[in-house]
Structure formats: C-alpha cells, structure tokens
Amino acid sequence: MLVDWQYLFLIHLLAFVIEKGETSERDVVTHIFESYDKRTRPVRNDSQATLVKIGMNIISVLDVNEQQEYIKLAVSFDNRWHDDFLTWDPAKFNGTTSIIVPADLIWTPDVTVTSTVLDTEYIVEKKDLNPEIKFTGDVRLNFAYVLSNRCEMKTDNFPFDSQECVFVMSSWSFATNRIILEHIGGQRPIQNLNSEWDIFPYTNETTDYYLEPENPRRRIIYRMKIKRKSSYYVWVIIAPTFIISSLSIAGMFAPFSSTGDREEKVSLGLTTLLTLAVILSLVTGEMPRSTNLPLLGRFVLFELSICVLSVALSIYIPHTVIVWSEEGNVALYRSFGSTDPVF
Prior knowledge:
By secondary structure, the chain is an alpha+beta fold. It folds into 2 domains: 6-228, Neurotransmitter-gated ion-channel ligand-binding domain (Acetylcholine Binding Protein, Chain: A), CATH 2.70.170; 231-335, Neurotransmitter-gated ion-channel transmembrane domain (Methane Monooxygenase Hydroxylase, Chain G, domain 1), CATH 1.20.58. The chain contains 5 helices and 12 strands. The strands form 2 sheets. Strands 1, 2, 3, 5, 6, 7 and 9 form a 7-stranded mixed beta sheet that branches. Strands 4, 8, 10, 11 and 12 form a 5-stranded antiparallel beta sheet that branches. A hairpin with a 2-residue loop joins strand 11 (203-212) and strand 12. Helix 2 packs antiparallel against helix 3 (261-286), helix 2 (231-252) runs parallel beside helix 4 and helix 3 (261-286) packs antiparallel against helix 4. The longest helix has 32 residues, at 295-326. It is rod-shaped and about 115 Å long. The protein starts with a helix and ends in an 8-residue tail after the last helix. 21% of the residues are buried. This is Neurotransmitter-gated ion-channel ligand-binding domain-containing protein. Keywords: Membrane, Signal, Transmembrane, Transmembrane helix.
C-alpha cells in the first residue's frame, strides 16, 4: 500500500512539473504585461534616449521604372531595441529566456523609409508581426516589405549607365533626445534575380537633420548602386544599326548606269532610313525622358545622318557624272565605273 502511495505521489509531482513547464511562457507574458503600457517609450528615465539598431537587407530588385524614376524592390529590416519594462528572472519561470508575442502588444519604434514615392506593401501584414523578447529586455523585430523608392536616373551613357539609389530611414515623430538610430553591419548577399540590372552591396551613413533648430533628428542613408546589363542593347539595337548603315554606305559605291541602277541605290538608301527610323522609335520607348540625349540615341542619330548623306550622294553623284559627261568629261565619267552610256 505504501508503494502505491509513492507511485501516486510521483505521478502528481511529474504532472505538476510538466504543467509548470508548459505554462512558463504564459506566466512570463502574464507577469510582464500586468502593468505594461505600450503608449509610452520603454524607458524608466524619460531623459534617456532609446537606441534603435537597424539592419537592412535587399532581397531582390523587382522593377526599375526609368520613365517615372523610381525603383521597386523587396527588402527586409532587422530592428532591435531595449525595453526596460519587458524583463524577468528566468529562474522563476522554469528557465524561460525568451518569448514571442504579437507586435501590437508592445511599443515599437515608428522608423520607416521616408524616401518612398508609393504606398509600401508589407509582405507580412504589420498586425501579424511577432517580435522576440529576451529576458534582459532586448527586443528584436524582423519584417519585410515591397517599397517603391525614388531613384534619380542619369542616362547620359545609356545603355552603359549605372545608377545610384538613395534610401532614407528615419523616425516620423522622435528627435535624437528620444530615439537614436544606429546601423547594424553585416548585410546578407543580394539575390540578383533581375535580368536587366546588376545589383551591388549598399553603403550607409548616419547623419542628423533639423526640422526644428533645437531638436535634431537622426537618419540612416543607404546608397545602392545598380548597373545596366548592356548586352541586350548591343546585340538587338547597336549591332543591327551598324550593319544596316554599313550596307547603305556600301551601296553608294556600287557601279551605276542609266538603266535603273541609280534608282535601286536610292531605294536601298530610303529603305535603310525607314529601318533606322523604326529602330530609333524603339530606342525612344526604352530611354527615360531627360534633357540630355543618351549615348544610344546619339549613336542611332549619327548612323541615320550617315544614311541620309549616303542617299543624297547616291542622287547627286550620278546626276553630276551625267551632266559632266554631256559636256565631254568622258574621263571623269569613266572613273566612276559606269558601264553603260548615258546618251
């Protein structure tokens, strides 16, 4: 009978231990949120600024809109700060050292990208984010969203151009006496899934700016460089344009006569001009609108000018030879390679 009571005691003790282990995280939440107020900054001394550490990682570049001068990309942010009111003793809660709770239960810094031009699209809705809280009060919140950031396009060297896009992160409400921003180093490798651009690692700098003379605000400026992959434009536009214009120039030196070859040369030149005009329209659709004509546009216009000159010479030279031959300049007439008499 005594043995049965011992077994019964051990079973109850084991059930108690399991129950305490299963409810330790719940007990921590009950304990730290009993008098917690998320409406105020998480410091016991109001004169103390909250240090918010931020890390940015670029997931992929989704689109580069050159006409409207903005870049659309998916990014993830790692935000870390200390909350004086979210601490506990792990020894009192079965060794629980961290918990994960919904973000709307705690104070979160209002730090965001202030250089966006369109609404930000959260990959995971903000209300569904779950920060991790350590027993020391350190909070870590990871989130990702798709943002459209203004990116001034300098296209003088298009399609061999590179662009620098600037992202600015700052707090909407707090000056440096309440929130101090600091960048976390160690960006992850960029997944370069864009077929048109090469993406390079960003650089960053931290600066202060003033909306009010006595209260500076802290911001983190990220600079990301992208370089256009020019092989498409080389093989689809530049090479065909060069070949077509070379064909037009070669046609100008073909032998001519009065039996219709002159008209064939003019027709070849006009066809070449029409082809280059179509290519120029394609280039215009690809190029961003700016005050300066890009390098590719200058190249096509140069080739177009060569073809116009070729057509003009194809008309002028035979006409001049015919006129001179009628005046007795037979030697000059023969020097241009005509095989048929013109009279």
